């Protein structure tokens, strides 16, 4: 049995990568059709396939992480973020699109501070060495 190899930016255990059926491990993603389920109608000219957002979020974010979408558009990334238990900050210039996305995505629940995941310890910066001092007797 191998030791867990979970990177700080993902929930995936890299030592078990073959066991994740929902994560595509091919070097080329061939997407035959756009997923139109789960709130993804083809209602905006800038839509991209939600499968790309899903694969990106699974690989490079953890549950409850914040995803930044600088081009919110029709909300493809927002819908996938909510579906995968991520939070999202969306930026959009057109107020009507923002309102349309708000109608598609449920408001984020407010959690008590104790229910939030504690912050991950950060590695020491390069060249930093921790020293300990003897306690006075």
Structure description:
There is one protein chain. Helices cover 21% and strands 6% of the residues. It has a two-stranded parallel sheet with strand order 1-2. The chain has helices at 50-60, 76-83, 95-104, and strands spanning 66-69, 87-90. With 137 residues, it is mainly α. The chain is built from 3 helices and 2 strands; from the N terminus they run αβαβα. The relative contact order is 0.12.
Topology, pairings included?
Elements: H1 50-60, E1 66-69, H2 76-83, E2 87-90, H3 95-104
Parallel strand pairs: 1-2
Helix pairs in contact: 1-2
Concise description?
By secondary structure, the protein is mainly α. The chain has helices at 50-60, 76-83, 95-104, and strands at residues 66-69, 87-90. The chain has a domain at 14-108: Rossmann fold (3-Layer(aba) Sandwich).
Structural features:
137 residues, mainly alpha, Rossmann fold, two-stranded parallel sheet, 2 strands, 6% strand, globular
How can the largest sheet be summarized? 2 strands, parallel
Query: What level of helicity do the residues show?
Result: 10-25%
Number of helices: 3
Question: CATH homologous superfamily name of the domain at 14-108?
Answer: Vaccinia Virus protein VP39
Number of E-type strands: 2
> At the third CATH level, what is the topology name of the domain at 14-108?
Rossmann fold
**Approximate strand percentage:** 5-15%
CA-atom Rg in angstroms: 20 Å
Shape field: globular
As residue ranges, the low-confidence spans are 128-135
Q: What value does the average pLDDT take?
A: 78
Strand order of the largest sheet: 1-2
In the CATH hierarchy, the architecture of the domain at 14-108 is 3-Layer(aba) Sandwich
Identify the CATH class of the domain at 14-108: Alpha Beta
List the helices and strands in order.
Answer: HEHEH
> Could you give the distance between the termini?
45 Å
Name the structural class. mainly alpha
């Amino acid at each position: 049995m191998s030791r867990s190899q979970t990177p700080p930016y993902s929930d995936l255990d890299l030592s078990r990568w073959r066991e994740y059926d929902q994560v595509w491990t091919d070097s080329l993603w061939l997407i035959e059709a756009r997923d139109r389920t789960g709130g993804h109608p083809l209602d905006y000219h800038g839509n991209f396939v939600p499968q790309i957002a899903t694969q990106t979020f699974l690989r490079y974010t953890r549950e409850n992480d914040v995803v930044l979408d600088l081009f919110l558009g029709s909300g493809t990334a927002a819908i996938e973020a909510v579906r995968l238990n991520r939070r999202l900050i969306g930026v959009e210039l057109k107020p009507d699109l923002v309102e349309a996305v708000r109608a598609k995505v449920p408001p984020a629940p407010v959690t008590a501070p104790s229910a939030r995941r504690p912050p991950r310890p950060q590695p020491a910066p390069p060249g930093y060495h921790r020293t300990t001092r003897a306690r006075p007797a």
